[in-house]
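Changelog note: in this version the structure field was regenerated for every chain. One regenerated record is shown below for reference.
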Amino acid sequence: MTVLDQVIETQNFILEELSKAQTRVVDTNRRLLEGAAKVLPKVELPSFETPELPKGEDVVANSFGFASQLLSTQQSFVEQLMTSWATPQAETASTKARAKTVK
């Protein structure tokens, strides 16, 4: 197994465990709310929606959309940077630099 294979395996394990933990949190919240609904009197909650404030769903979608775009931009940047270092000029410069330090 290569180092990259081990990294990928670890990443997959982390994602699986995170998903399991998130599922447990959501399930616990549902059960809590179902239990509370049986015990607590029905109270009409005031509406918190105002024209000035965005809906929570819109804030979440916007935030994760931005994060997705940011990661994509960063990935492109790193790939371009890696490519620039892999060019013959960079290899020649790197070889020359190593040759100077060996003398």
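Spot check on this record: Residues 83 and 90 are 10 Å apart (CA to CA). The chain is about 80% helix and 0% strand.
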